Amino acid sequence: MSIEEYASRIIVSLDPPGGVEIGEWLERVYTSLKGLVAGWKVGWPLILRWGVERVRSFLASASGVRLLDLKLADIYNTMRSVVDVFVDVVDAVIAHSFIGVEGALAELKKLLEEYGVKLVLVYTMSHPGASEVMDQCLDRIDEVVERVKPWGLVAPATRPSLVSRARRRYGDLVIFSPGVGAQGAAPGSAICAGADYEIIGRSIVASPDPLRSVYGLSASAAKILSSCT
Amino acid sequence: MSIEEYASRIIVSLDPPGGVEIGEWLERVYTSLKGLVAGWKVGWPLILRWGVERVRSFLASASGVRLLDLKLADIYNTMRSVVDVFVDVVDAVIAHSFIGVEGALAELKKLLEEYGVKLVLVYTMSHPGASEVMDQCLDRIDEVVERVKPWGLVAPATRPSLVSRARRRYGDLVIFSPGVGAQGAAPGSAICAGADYEIIGRSIVASPDPLRSVYGLSASAAKILSSCT
Fold first, then answer.
1. Pair A187, A180: CB distance under 8 Å
2. Model ipTM over 0.90
3. CA-to-CA distance for A122 and B96, rounded, in angstroms?
4. CA A149 vs CA A103, A116, A142, B150: distances in Å
5. Distance, in angstroms, between A4 CA and closest chain B CA?
6. Is any Cβ of chain A less than 8 angstroms from the Cβ of B153?
7. Cβ-defined contact of B82 to A15 (cutoff 8 Å)
């Protein structure tokens, strides 16, 4: 995989670093990387610090895949109130599979389908604590994934065996892997384990030169991927 | 339990009904009920529709317990960015226990303690889907609760046996029970099962006369609680 090919598998997590002026920072990251990376992941930190309207307007004009990562994990009535605010300016929405189907993910998927927006479920997370409950309950989570039939899954680059498990079970789902860079996983390692995209935040967005960081990460990834079996 | 005693065990969930002018609606609900109910639960629907600054300013001057219910379920770094925005104007913050301790709830609890803010963990939720994964993983969730030692738990009025389970295991934790009213549980039923507070949303906040609704709910609850064993 070439440097450009790897970069086209990066989703940039747009969580603003401390102390930046958000508008300038986002403009710099976006203009440096658009067309090179696959897309963007937006979550609560950006929404809270920049405001709903500015985030909506950025998303409305952004090119690339737009993932809304609010880690939705509430009853449907509440998730609907939240999703309603962004559903016309995103391509996919991330929710926790842990909350189950009835009264939650079944209704959420139906709502998103009405808007042509895709559902991505968290299979398990990238931090150590995810192995305490979520990893232990993966058989139940698999049942939820099988019933809901989402478009994609989030599986952790930090525990590549779980990316492989998701890939083996769900050949047709798009797998996004967070945990690359600041959280410790090597660039390319999740793709090697079966992910379609690697989600990278701080290593890119907290860099003074996001483009150079993407090239650096991509060069590392190219090495891993050349020996990936 | 008298009507006033029951009312003092209600936490009002301030999720705005569709179509209302938020400022007027909130003023009406708050002035009708302050001093009568125990406190207020604020979540994403209000924050998104009314804006961070107005919600902060409401919370800063609100009397009663102020629960921030963002159903936090992310890695610590992200939860911190979110909590930082509200930590000086709330009394307690609700997070999901299924995200585990390391890299998530341990650090969150420490952060909150620095601000004198309490942590409330979701034990399991009120909708039917919660029985598909969360209820099945309660032994693991219990391990998290025992390690984190939160101030309180959220347990569902809609499945009172789980409120009882939480009460039996955690005699010293404050238990909040959602699911009363619109979601189907009878007022008083969760307190009967061992909860300290019942969280009520739509039945009160979507009512044209919130005070009358609280009295109506409290009268029903008083009946249940008089025969509660």
1. yes
2. yes
3. 14
4. 16, 15, 10, 35
5. 29
6. no
7. no
Over residues B179-208, mean pLDDT: 94
| Of A186, A154, A211, the residue nearest A37 (C-alpha) | A211
Determine the distance in angstroms separating the CA of A19 from the nearest CA of chain B, rounded to an integer.
Answer: 12
B182 to chain A nearest CA, in Å?
11
CA pair distance B62, B10, nearest whole angstrom: 15
Question: Do A99 and B183 make contact, defined as CB atoms within 8 angstroms?
Answer: no
Structure tokens at A77: 């009535």
- Provide, as residue numbers in chain B, all residues whose Cβ is less than 8 Å from the Cβ of A100: 127-134
Q: How many CB atoms lie within 10 A of CB B164?
A: 17
- Establish if A105 touches chain B: CB-CB under 8 angstroms: yes
Classify residue A60 by burial, with Cβ atoms within 10 Å: 0-12, 13-18, 19+. Answer: exposed
What stretch of H or E contains B33? helix B22-33
Q: pLDDT, tens digit, for every residue of A195-210?
A: 999 999 999 999 999 9
- What is the pLDDT of chain B when averaged over all its residues? 96
pLDDT bucket at B50, cuts 50 / 70 / 90: very high
* Count of C-beta atoms within a 10 Å radius of residue A127: 26
- Which residue's structure tokens are 């009363």? B180
> Using CA atoms, how far apart are residues B142 and A133, in angstroms rounded to an integer?
10
Eight-state DSSP code of residue B17: P
Q: Tell me if residue B71 is catalytic.
A: yes
Residues 6+ apart with CB under 8 A from A105: A95, A97, A99, A119, A121, A144, A148, B129
| Whether B181 contacts chain A with CB within 8 A | no
Q: Please state, in angstroms and rounded to a whole number, the distance separating the CA atoms of residues B207 and A188.
A: 54
Task: Report, as residue numbers or ranges, the catalytic residues of A.
Answer: 71
User: Which tokens belong to B11?
Assistant: 């936490």
Q: Which positions 14-73 of A are in contact with B (Cβ < 8 Å)?
A: 15, 43-45, 47-49, 51-52, 70-71, 73
